[in-house]
């Protein structure tokens, strides 16, 4: 089954202790769709400006990503400049220009309306809700969010949470949204706001999920080199949703495997800058690393 | 095979968001030996003052812990007052009185000298080295350490590292000792200082180990209630060493299972204050939780 994703497409300038890239292709929808397209067909909704070089759209077409929902409008593409230091667990935003993404109005082409798997990447909850009004009969809706919306659009976010099946967010956001320090408690509190399942990303420490009464906890895939964490969260979400759509299952066992796939997908992303590694990963490599990860976690 | 442990015995006064205990039995050797005695026979080396009520020694005798190496000397027992706030990942020391532990001279009774499994709980590296001079032919020596010794006794610590098989330390200490932010890299750097294996504890995020060329990474056992993290690290070490001594094995597969046992042992400790939960855990409960933990990590 295909996956619909709505989110940002951006040019990223990123500096880490391992180097720097300027104007690299990024954005939540970009990382998500590159990751999820390792599993299934992707329908992309996003916006870029006139400055976006047509040849850079190849990254989507080469991966069979449907760009019927990609708007090209007057103005410049969203761009972000960030820096990571020390253990690289936090991005420091140096500069951000929303440009055309600031007035983004997500319109779904008719061909997208029957989408069964929907991922609402980080964005204003009002826009995320607007997307939901345009899909007919989704089987699984998952959203991301961020501290900004918890701070400035909490009512919209709560309305959104009542309409999604799942949410993927990071540990700091989960604590902020609930006021709970213990992540199991925080995850359960978010479930009570509406979603059936809650996936809490912990960066280098892996992920924790509350799926109904089940608790799932997996570490990250251990890596000696993390060059650039940008896009890790969206790659995780892409691997997670991609696997669920491919499997056509949403039970707790499938969720656990989906989290494992999300984890290994993200592990490739952070091995190099921007999309440099993720774009070249094969499904065979992904499955190989999943098998290694599974073995790593097997206690005999 | 029995395990020799050298470390502190203390009275702890601890306040967390879940309550407070005053003068509870604590100390690294106490938590370690209570945990490890779930697996095998323990030989304890430590010091207490004349203020130590004889009836409180029952906690050791009830568990079959050999206290031939326990010194009772003039003065008061070591005591520590600490506080945990927020996510409770860091203890704040409010007051510390080393008392008799400040002049502790670890002397092994003759009956301990043939110990094959040796755990040197956190203490001055010079004292830890002194213990090693008194054991005849140990099969496995593992030490703990802390930021204080990295700061003030680095040469002794380095001399110690050349003589141990393994070290268990936390993520902050591993980064401090090596100057490396990536924990896989930090663990490998510590291995180059001498130990065959390095176990890095990450509190609520579980543990990472470098065992020869293998990397082991396991999450914590997810708990909705953590009342008091005091003793978690020493309980982890106790479960870890206890299992290895019981199994009589030190290969990578045994190490992984030992880390899993350490993880679930510590998970009981933090469910209540001081030794309140750990002291009542049965081996059946421990094995039950290990089976749950193993199932939690199985990806199908």
What's this model, at a glance?
The structure is a homodimer of 300-residue chains. With 300 residues, chain A is α/β, with parallel strands linked by helices.
Q: What would you say this structure looks like, in words?
A:
The structure is a homodimer of 300-residue chains. Chain A is α/β, with parallel strands linked by helices and 300 residues long. Chain A has a single domain, classed as UDP-N-acetylmuramoyl-L-alanine:D-glutamate ligase (3-Layer(aba) Sandwich). The first copy, chain A, is 33% helix and 26% strand. In chain A, the strands form 2 sheets. The first copy, chain A, has a 9-stranded mixed sheet with strand order 5-4-1-8-9-10-11-12-13, with helices on both faces. A 4-stranded mixed sheet of chain A has the order 3-2-6-7. In chain A, a hairpin with a 2-residue loop joins β2 and β3. In chain A, α1 (28-36) packs parallel to α8 (232-247), α6 crosses α7 (183-191) and α8 (232-247) packs antiparallel against α9 (252-269). The A-B interface holds A 86-88, 175, 181-185, 188, 202, 204-206, 208, 215-226, 253, 256-257, 260, 290, 293-294, 296-300 and B 86-88, 175, 181-185, 188, 202, 204-206, 208, 215-226, 253, 256-257, 260, 290, 293-294, 296-300.
The greatest interface between two protein chains, and residues involved on each side, is: A-B, 39 and 39 residues
Query: Can you write the helix and strand succession of chain A as a string?
Result: EEEHEHEEEEHEHHEHHEEEHHH
**Number of folding domains of chain A?**
1
The name of the CATH architecture of chain A is 3-Layer(aba) Sandwich
Low-confidence stretches of chain A: none
Query: Mean pLDDT score of chain A, rounded?
Result: 96
């Amino acid at each position: 089954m295909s996956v619909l994703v709505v989110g940002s497409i951006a040019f990223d300038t990123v500096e880490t202790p391992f180097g720097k890239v300027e104007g690299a292709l990024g954005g939540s929808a970009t990382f998500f769709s590159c990751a999820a397209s390792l599993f299934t067909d992707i329908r992309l909704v996003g916006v870029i400006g006139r400055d976006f070089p047509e040849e850079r759209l190849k990254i989507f077409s080469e991966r069979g990503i449907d760009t019927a929902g990609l708007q090209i409008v007057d103005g410049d593409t969203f761009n972000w400049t960030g820096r990571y230091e020390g253990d690289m667990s936090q991005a420091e935003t140096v500069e951000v220009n929303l440009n055309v993404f600031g007035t983004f109005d997500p319109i779904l082409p008719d061909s997208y309306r029957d989408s069964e798997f929907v991922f609402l990447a980080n964005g204003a909850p009002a826009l995320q809700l607007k997307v939901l009004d345009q899909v007919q009969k989704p089987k699984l809706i998952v959203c991301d969010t961020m501290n900004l919306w918890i701070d400035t659009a909490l009512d919209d976010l709560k309305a959104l949470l009542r309409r999604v099946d799942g949410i993927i967010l990071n540990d700091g956001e989960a604590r902020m949204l609930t006021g709970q320090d213990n992540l199991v408690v925080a995850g359960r509190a978010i479930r009570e706001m509406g979603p059936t399942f809650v996936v809490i990303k912990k960066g280098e420490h892996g992920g924790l999920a509350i799926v109904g009464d089940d608790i799932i906890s997996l570490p990250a895939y251990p890596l000696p080199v993390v060059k650039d964490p940008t896009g890790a969260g969206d790659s995780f979400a892409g691997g997670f949703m991609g696997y669920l759509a491919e499997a056509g299952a949403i039970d707790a066992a499938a969720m656990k495997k989906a989290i494992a796939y999300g984890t290994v997908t993200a592990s490739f992303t952070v091995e190099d800058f921007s999309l440099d590694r993720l774009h070249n990963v094969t499904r065979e490599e992904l499955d190989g690393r999943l098998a290694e990860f599974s073995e790593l976690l097997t206690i005999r």
